[in-house]
Specification:
alpha/beta, Urease, subunit C, domain 1, TIM Barrel, 2 domains, 8-stranded mixed β-sheet, 8-stranded parallel β-sheet, about 25% strand, about 375 residues
Amino acid sequence: MTRELVFGNAKLALPDEIVEGWVATNDGIIVEIGRGAAPRGSMDLTGDLVIPGLIELHTDHLETHLRPRPKVHWPERSAILAFDAQIAASGITTVFDCIRAGRDDDYSPVVNEISLVIGYIMQAAAEGLLRADHRVHVRCEVTSDEVLDDTRKALTQRIDLISLMDHTPGARQFTSLDAWRIYYGGKSGRTAADLEKLIETKHASHARNYAKHRRALVALARERGIVLASHDDATPAHVDESISDKVAIAEFPTSAEAARLSHEAGIDVMMGAPNVVRGGSHSGNIAAETLARNGHLDILSSDYVPASLLLGAFELARLIEGYGLAKALRTVTINPARAAGLHDRGAIEVGKRADLVRVRVVDGLPVVRDVYREGRRVS
């Protein structure tokens, strides 16, 4: 049980506005919100901003801790704890850890890695070692021969979100084969001849597996009530497929048309915060800022840089006239919470979890000072 805390002399990021006021919590829940001067005995936050704890639905950064260098596999428990500390320090109080099911060219899991990693996450949570609330996001490489077996292994423990991925050259993220050759050639150092062989192999895997594996994965998600996301939708046909499969989240659509159609269909559009911070996609696809200006961006994800999540929201407010900080912060708080079915968090409202972050803005840069999860300081 956590004691009562009252945060005063603060700017509160409410769902629709930023106000000067105070917020009181008790036993991990927000119990009262007020404007103006706080009750006596409150903590003086000296005008700092208080925002809901950030909700991260898609981060690949755990893989960086598990594989800090090529051919280096770091002990899972140590990697998870280090990753968790970085997540919390970035103001993220709920995180969906991405774990891959199925092999891909740039990542080959060790035997039973998916079960080991999920098991260690659950064990660390049960032992009270984790600062953030960790959920499991299984990224399913649909064309992989192993994806169904890997996903079923994960289901024996826990899955909270499934994303349907297809990294076949010439499709989705890389509709241009030339763009794929440049990206993967530079990333892997493979020769042109090796890349052509890989294209043939991947196309064969797509023809062999895509349709049947996608049907099976969608069926598994529906049976278990697991939220579904589709990855890198690029065309109207991709969006139609997502609508048919009752996908809730469109992860990183690669074209403005796919993002618009997804948004209009009620599918939440998620883009990478690094895309916002860097001013565009690292692989040459649509810019997240463009989608925000078009009104078709719902959620930001830190993707591969945890600190980008908060900064990305601030950048949206800075770059787009009239967008406003309250609206920008919804892309990293209440919108992802709603998309994931987590209705107990994501907003500073009475009755919600006391997942709160104290932020000081220094020359336009948001600096995380304190992080509370269910009223308990974790960073």
